[in-house]
């Protein structure tokens, strides 16, 4: 029986769901507050459950659901992302008044979908997880208050997302038809026998699109700037962190399905990575809205991650997984600062950051570290993360992609430094109002900054874990 | 395998100092300054210990430390010093300590300033002791980034522009270096970033020829290589005094050191192939920098372009790939570091008190502030290569090396040295002698405390000017070993 303890995180998810649901049943004035408490406690439970089950391995439900180093890494990351997002949401400022409590429930369902994806080793289960994760977000994104653009962004997200989902399903059906199985490891064996037939590659490419959409890699990136800008801070943070890291992980798993080196699929991915990096970084330069800038930066980061993926080696998958987790932490820190600087949930422009180093030295320092990490400057984790990605790509001779990536990292420093300039250099207009921070805010700032620094200098444990996770894919 | 020792301690000194500075609340600026000065003193002490333990007779790396760090990808905590890095460690410690003292009167955002400064110094020490290519580049970039804030927040004259330009240029340099470093790593196929082991591999001829320019140009940007030097004068002018000191004095040496430690030993055939091209670039550096310095009136711009010119001498010495040339280059790295630090420290005082650095608006300063003027004049004489100062020997050695390898370039350089003399004299005569300006309000001369750091720098220049063997005996065995690899 003790084997079933490996499913503790999922059990904790169910309990959290029930807690939030119960809190939302009431209609008193404290309804949102109870939901928030439930989500915080539940999120903590899930996190603890994830930590407690580390090292276990288990296969269940007729070998469609597997718990191993891979799923545990992703689940832990998703749990952290969920908890931080709940924390960023706080009282749901910026969310429509009648949906301030519901935001927690839908974040939870989305997190559950992501966790299912992490463990699913069967294509249909995987697809169901993808849909659960996406549909919850389709609901959340348009629920922004006083933000007319929100509806457009919600619609764009929905339409592009559903299109990607349909394409994914079509690709899946091709793969199933070709191999006669829905289990990923059997599929891998069958695909190896088939070789790199065009139809297999075509099916795989279509199957990937749903995950590339979540990663916001060119040409699946159109939704990202609008969604980041229009969704409330907590929701945007979830889309940018937990959802991203799962997409990276699943791309590793699916790309490991078959040996594709030297095919058109690899060339296409490499080009997508090159365009994604360049486009994201160049367009980010002219942004004035901080979240919109982070969205374009995310498109560029998706490009860096894909640079690691196109190596199609164990090193490359490890580096991508590793970077996904680092990215979650640095991005979470950036969104936390955005949410706290924001007044009443409104969007934050560059000018709103002016004088931040006086108004809140801690937030300014957290932002500084997060941006340096995104830019890939030591001693933050971004440097070593990009080093591993580029190292992996270079081993397969992708020198032009690595060179382009390194140049892009330099370009990105420009717009990150402009943000730093606003926070550290320019004085605030009018009187400088200190930013109020709770104890939890401070703890989270210190925690995320410490993680960014420690992982930047001593990533050995996490990298070894990512390496083990990537060892027995798919 | 040796555990961590003195070299780790040296890198930890400023890192611990940084932690202490961060822990002191910002309302005690005096305590923060004392903590920074103590950090500087500690690095000086540890450097002294390293100097004492170092055996000049033995070539090769000493005080080795080697601890696995990320075994899966071959990254190690691997440190060591030889006769090339030791002078640079001494240089960094001196410039850091004197830099803290020079900034004693700073009033604005004291805590952040000294925090960023110690972070910068951590990176610089790290580069000079590191024998692992990953950590080398890790520290290299670590040293570059605090510069942006140091210049943008505390600087003067077009500071935001200067800071951004400097940061982007230097990071563009690393964008060339990182792919090249990874290419070398995979070409060696040893799954190690250990510079010593990477140096034992023979890389293919074509590979060396293709990759070497990436490393040379990438590192060369930080060394102020023409035509990618334009960030340097602009950045120096914009930076506050101690940052200019550290930047021109130490940071530019990181670039030359990168060429010396990474590019040349790993890819000797590439270095041979490109040696004429790099020597010509270096000569352009020397001549161009000297002529531009001749036409400047802002004293900091004069120094900025003189740095470009003097770093050209370093690059030229490296390009000769001869014993004399490389000895001279390393010695020039040291003496130019001290000299430029003195230059910027001297101008810093004048700018603080007169609020101008335009030599045409100054004049006759030596009459009113004789000691403060003397510091500038000493630096200018040293820059002009007058015997009795350390630079004289360094430039002489590079000249001798060049004369054997590239005689034509050597004569061009000699002519450029005349121009160097001219711009130094012009600055001295126009700014410090001549008729004093009527409207100029003269302050009191420099205080004893503020002249202490500047006097230390003058003393170092003089001691090495009269007894250069103190440095050269350390440098020589190391360059001999390097020449052995290059052959």
Number of separate strands of chain A: 2
**Amount of helix of chain A:** over 70%
Seen as an oligomer or otherwise, the chain set is heterodimer
Q: Please give the alpha-carbon distance between the first and last residues of chain A.
A: 27 Å
The radius of gyration computed from the alpha-carbon positions of chain A, rounded to a whole number of angstroms, is 21 Å
Cross-sheet strand order for the largest sheet of chain A: 1-2
Structural class of chain A: mainly alpha
Using the alpha-carbon principal axes, give the shape of chain A: globular
The rough form of chain B would be described as globular
Poorly predicted runs of chain A are none
Percent of residues in β-strands of chain B:
under 5%
Largest binding interface between chains: A-B, 34 and 31 residues
């Amino acid at each position: 029986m003790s084997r079933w303890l490996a499913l503790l995180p999922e059990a904790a998810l169910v309990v959290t769901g029930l807690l939030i649901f119960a809190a939302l049943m009431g209609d008193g004035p404290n309804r949102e507050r109870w939901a928030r408490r439930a989500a915080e406690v539940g999120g903590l439970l899930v996190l603890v459950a994830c930590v407690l089950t580390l090292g276990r391995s288990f296969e269940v439900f007729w070998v469609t659901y597997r718990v191993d180093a891979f799923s545990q890494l992703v689940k832990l990351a998703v749990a952290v992302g969920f908890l931080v997002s709940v924390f960023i949401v706080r009282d749901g400022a910026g969310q429509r008044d009648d949906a301030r409590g519901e935001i927690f429930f839908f974040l939870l369902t989305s997190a559950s979908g992501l966790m299912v994806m992490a463990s699913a080793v069967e294509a249909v289960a995987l697809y169901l997880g993808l849909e659960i994760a996406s549909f919850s977000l389709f609901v959340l994104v348009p629920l922004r208050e006083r933000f007319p653009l929100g509806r457009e962004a919600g619609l764009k997200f929905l339409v592009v997302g559903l299109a990607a989902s349909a394409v994914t399903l079509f690709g899946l059906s091709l793969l199933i038809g070709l191999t006669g199985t829905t289990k990923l490891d059997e599929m891998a064996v069958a695909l190896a026998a088939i070789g790199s037939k065009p139809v297999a590659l075509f099916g795989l490419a279509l199957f990937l699109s749903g995950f590339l959409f979540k990663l916001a890699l060119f040409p699946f990136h159109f939704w990202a700037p609008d969604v980041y800008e229009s969704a409330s801070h907590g929701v945007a943070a979830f889309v940018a962190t937990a959802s991203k890291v799962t997409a990276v992980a699943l791309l590793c798993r699916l790309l490991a399905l078959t040996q594709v080196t030297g095919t058109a699929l690899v060339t296409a991915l490499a080009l997508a990575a090159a365009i994604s990096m360049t486009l994201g970084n160049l367009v980010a330069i002219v942004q004035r809205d901080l979240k919109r800038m982070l969205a374009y930066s995310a498109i560029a980061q998706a490009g860096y991650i894909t640079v690691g993926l196109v190596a199609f080696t164990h090193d490359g998958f490890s580096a991508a997984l590793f970077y996904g987790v680092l990215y979650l932490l640095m991005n979470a820190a950036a969104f936390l600062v955005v949410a706290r600087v924001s007044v009443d949930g409104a969007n934050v422009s560059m000018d709103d950051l002016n004088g931040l180093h006086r108004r809140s030295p801690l937030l300014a320092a957290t932002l500084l570290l997060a941006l340096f990490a995104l830019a890939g400057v030591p001693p933050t984790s971004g440097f070593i993360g990009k080093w591993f990605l580029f190292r992996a790509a270079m081993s397969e001779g992708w020198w032009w992609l690595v060179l382009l990536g390194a140049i892009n990292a330099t370009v990105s420093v420009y717009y990150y430094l402009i943000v730093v300039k606003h926070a550290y250099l320019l004085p605030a207009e009018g009187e400088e109002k200190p930013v109020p921070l709770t104890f939890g805010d401070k703890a989270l700032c210190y925690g995320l900054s410490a993680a960014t620094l420690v992982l930047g200098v001593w990533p050995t444990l996490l990298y070894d874990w990512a390496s083990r996770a990537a060892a027995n894919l798919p | 395998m040796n555990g961590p020792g003195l070299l780790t301690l040296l890198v930890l000194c400023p890192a611990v100092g940084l932690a202490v500075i961060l822990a002191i609340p910002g309302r005690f600026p005096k305590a923060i300054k004392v903590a920074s000065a103590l950090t500087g003193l500690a690095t000086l002490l540890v450097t002294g210990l390293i100097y004492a333990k170092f055996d000049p007779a033995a070539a090769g790396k000493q005080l080795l430390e080697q601890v696995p760090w990320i075994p899966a990808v071959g990254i190690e905590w691997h440190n060591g010093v030889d006769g090339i890095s030791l002078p640079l460690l001494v240089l960094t410690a001196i410039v850091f300590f004197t830099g803290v003292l020079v900034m004693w009167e700073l009033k604005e955002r004291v805590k952040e300033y000294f925090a960023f400064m110690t972070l910068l110094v951590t990176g610089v020490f790290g580069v000079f002791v590191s024998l692992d290519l990953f950590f080398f580049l890790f520290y290299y970039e670590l040293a570059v980034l605090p510069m942006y804030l140091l210049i943008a927040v505390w600087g003067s004259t077009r500071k935001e522009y200067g800071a951004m330009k400097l940061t982007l240029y230097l990071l563009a340099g690393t964008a060339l270096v990182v792919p090249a470093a990874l290419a070398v790593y995979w070409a060696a196929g040893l799954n190690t970033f250990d510079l010593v082991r990477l140096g034992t591999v023979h890389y293919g001829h074509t590979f060396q020829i293709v990759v070497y320019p990436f490393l040379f140009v990438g590192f060369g940007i930080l060394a102020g290589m023409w035509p990618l030097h334009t960030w340097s004068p602009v950045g120096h002018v914009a930076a506050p005094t101690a940052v200019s000191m550290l930047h021109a004095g130490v940071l530019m040496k990181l670039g030359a050191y990168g060429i010396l430690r990474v590019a040349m030993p790993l890819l000797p055939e590439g270095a041979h192939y490109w040696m004429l091209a790099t020597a010509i670039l270096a000569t352009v550096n020397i001549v161009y920098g000297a002529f531009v310095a001749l036409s400047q009136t802002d004293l900091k711009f004069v120094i900025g372009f003189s740095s470009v010119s003097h770093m050209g001498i370093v690059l030229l010495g490296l390009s000769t790939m001869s014993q004399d040339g490389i000895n001279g280059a390393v010695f020039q790295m040291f003496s130019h570091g001290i000299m430029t630090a003195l230059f910027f420290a001297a101008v810093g005082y004048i700018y603080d008190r007169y609020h101008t650095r335009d030599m045409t608006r100054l004049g006759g300063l030596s009459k009113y502030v004789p000691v403060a003027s003397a510091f500038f004049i000493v630096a200018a004489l040293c820059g002009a290569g007058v015997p009795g100062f350390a630079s004289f020997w360094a430039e002489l050695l590079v000249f001798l090396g060049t004369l054997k390898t590239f005689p034509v370039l050597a004569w061009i350089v000699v002519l450029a040295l005349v121009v160097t003399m001219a711009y130094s004299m012009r600055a001295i005569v126009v700014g410090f002698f001549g008729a004093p300006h009527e409207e100029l309000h003269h302050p009191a001369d420099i205080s004893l405390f503020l002249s202490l750091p500047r006097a230390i720098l003058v003393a170092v220049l003089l001691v090495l000017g009269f007894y250069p063997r103190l440095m050269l005996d350390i440098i020589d065995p190391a360059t001999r070993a390097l020449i052995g690899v290059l052959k």
